[in-house]
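Practice problem: predict the structure.
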Amino acid sequence: MNSLKLKVELVELYSLKDFVEQNYKEDMLVNLVVEEIFVNIVNYSNADYIIVNIEYYDDLIIEFVDNGIKFDPTSQEAPKKPNDIEEAQLGGVGILLAKSYADELIYAYENGENHLKIIKKGYDE
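Answer:
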């Protein structure tokens, strides 16, 4: 498993994107899921750091670890589909995207840290 510790700043998206591509491959959907989760942590967690772990053998496993406010994204309901653009609300899309992409989405709160694992089983290049 390869790890990267990031500051809780949006500018770190560049380092995160490079890290994902070095340890996996360029994949627009994976990049979008990773970006959405990272941005949510930056914007809402009050964390001091974010650690991203990537493991790829038969399954792709991406884990986010942060020491921010306890938050379980797996327990969140999907946002309601708006009837038109004027009813649309911001937020909730990153979690929905991760839930629809992942075969498993696992959350744990351990030792003052949020751990979110996104698992895509049998993911071939």
